[in-house]
Amino acid sequence: MKFEALTIKDIAKALGLSTSTVSRALRDSYEISPETKKLVLEYAEKNNYHPNPIALSLKERRSRSIGVIVCEIANSYFSQVINGIESIAYNNGYNVIIAQSRESFDREVLNLQYLTSRSIDGLIISVSTETKDFSYLKELHSKGMPIVFFDRIVNEIDTHKVIADNYKGAYEATTHLINCGYRRIAAVSNPALLSITVERMAGYKAALADNGIEVDESLIKYCQHGGMILSEVEDVVNELFDLNQRPDAIFATADKLTTNCLRLLKIKGFAVPGDIGLLGFSNTDLTELLDPPLSIIKQPAFEMGEVATNLLLQLIESKRPVTDFETKVLTTELLIRESTRKKEAKAKPVPSLLK
Amino acid sequence: MKFEALTIKDIAKALGLSTSTVSRALRDSYEISPETKKLVLEYAEKNNYHPNPIALSLKERRSRSIGVIVCEIANSYFSQVINGIESIAYNNGYNVIIAQSRESFDREVLNLQYLTSRSIDGLIISVSTETKDFSYLKELHSKGMPIVFFDRIVNEIDTHKVIADNYKGAYEATTHLINCGYRRIAAVSNPALLSITVERMAGYKAALADNGIEVDESLIKYCQHGGMILSEVEDVVNELFDLNQRPDAIFATADKLTTNCLRLLKIKGFAVPGDIGLLGFSNTDLTELLDPPLSIIKQPAFEMGEVATNLLLQLIESKRPVTDFETKVLTTELLIRESTRKKEAKAKPVPSLLK
DNA sequence: TTTTTTTACGCAATCGTTCCCGGTAACGAT
DNA sequence: ATCGTTACCGGGAACGATTGCGTAAAAAAA
């Protein structure tokens, strides 16, 4: 079945005018008489005329749609970002085409090809955990495709970027853990090369250093799939607990990582924060209802989406090539809850766990 | 900045052919010689030619994009459905334009107008809690727009529909509560007119009836915004606890309702399940990590998205008008956890709560 | 009354692609 | 030598909208 819409040609025929006249009347051109305008406008209104956006796109050589690539929609952080993207795009007459990489480089490239073949006007992307080769993005960018990176950015491509203050967020989080008496703080993180990993781990290490705690590389673990696969988190947690000197807290650097760490600690029967403290990046609004209520670092996800979209629209609608790019850094929020409760004061760190 | 792509005309010019020949060569037409085909194909390949989808859309009078309207993306149920929609759409060369009603009728109509003005080929929609007037949807449908309803369906419009077995889900859930010893089971629900509310409440009432428990209308509460606003859930919970005969369990019929009930019970200091049992529809994967782990009814969200999209594509691609519509009913899953632990056997229900 | 200006509208090209018509060779058959 | 096939390719309209240019009629100026 087809859904046939009224065209300018139909109006012209019905009113005995030419298409040009109708078009001009609809756009309120000065060279159309008030009577004709009224005639056309009323007819269009009554018959619910809408200009065909596809014809317009063809004419204007722009689709008025922007592509968004994230690893997963069903992730509270990204769905909030998309929310922000949507709101700005919608208000500016753009629509949003969303694609998911599911943390796979191949799917990301496929999505990229798909979106460009759908002739998007611009792209907002947070790269997958697997992505190490940016040549495809670089090529696209060099061909003139407006791109804005957010969250997981690509430093070697010069364009607008939007990130949370990952360094500061991680620094504050780690400092908080230290202040609560934790000393052997493990980090469970995304792949090492990801921009957010680099930034967050730098904050983590700086906080340790500033508090005179030596960085223990055996306490730093990376999950290749960003915690999407439970087993990889399990492996990491097992490794941590197999250490001679077990960690007394875990700092997780991503949403899925944080909740899956909690999941595994519970499965393994460790008490949080009794046996081990837990704190991580997360954007779900359920963290305070968890057992235990989770201390988290929250990103201004919605706002990040808004900012990224505004920057992208700026790029798209700019007449001349933009060369002055900026990186917007938005502050995170540390929410302190039960999972990082102060450790009972003791003479020295307990080497063995009670449970 | 513009992103200029190679066109068929460019190829024609470069190769000294006509556009028709190039077009035919690319589509592997029999009336083009193998040599010419090879020439064109190689040139196209080398210069990374992609047919312009907008021009194609204009020609074929179809946009190859489908509209999706849900109340909120950042809701685990809907984001999972969208996931399913995406996967099928993507595999069939369609893209998905998502719009959010945020449980507002006005926004829903606005979205509808926006999507149709973007000339979508079809629509998948779960109506907002506010929607009582379906005239706009009816008009669209009567004009030939392929529509598939899911979750919150509109019975008076005859087209494909996809729902979970809400009746059975609610029946099983309520029966489970009864089997656990709960007798005064309150229902916290979406607006009464919503299809899912009707179905779920019917299951709830049937389960009570089948177990010889009288339906107490004072225990049935409706939240006009589907729990999106915490205060409305708070009002409802307050009302329930102000009753002479307080409920001993709450059955919540939607994701936000379920988690927000838990939130409020905790805020108010009620122990779950000690003071009151809790069970509800939910699709977040965090419910088992909550305090207490929540008993839930889970919908096959991803699958629902898949099924809905397949049905929609069927409608879109059908040559002649479809008149034989079906309503697919998918089974829910009851996951029993701590929040509905069996009540200690007592002579009669405790009238006052301990806390 | 004639010329100029203004008003109001139509023609046709354009965007990228497809496809209905043609058209022209080459070749074998008559 | 003529006709019919086959193979191969091009012209141009169409999809829906915009827009530069041309031009008729009406109004204003001469």
Short description:
The structure is a homodimer of 355-residue chains. With 355 residues, chain A is an alpha/beta fold.
Question: Which percent range describes the beta-strand content of chain A?
Answer: 5-15%
Q: Mean pLDDT of chain A, nearest integer?
A: 92
Largest interface: A-B, 59 and 59 residues
* Spatial extent as radius of gyration of chain A: 26 Å
The rounded distance between the terminal residues' Cα atoms of chain A is 65 Å
Main beta sheet strand tally, sense and closure of chain A? 6 strands, parallel
Helix content of chain A: 40-55%
Secondary structure elements and pairings:
The structure is a homodimer of 355-residue chains.
Chain A: H1 8-15, H2 19-26, H3 34-46, H4 53-60, E1 65-70, H5 76-91, E2 95-100, H6 105-117, E3 122-125, H7 135-142, E4 147-150, E5 160-164, H8 166-179, E6 185-189, H9 195-210, E7 220-222, H10 230-242, E8 249-252, H11 255-267, E9 277-281, E10 295-298, H12 301-317, E11 327-330, E12 333-335
Parallel strand pairs in A: 1-2, 1-3, 3-4, 4-5, 5-11, 6-7, 6-8, 8-9, 9-10
Antiparallel strand pairs in A: 10-12
Helix pairs in contact in A: 1-2, 2-3, 5-12, 8-9, 10-11
Chain B binds a DNA duplex (30 and 30 nucleotides) through helix 2 and helix 4.
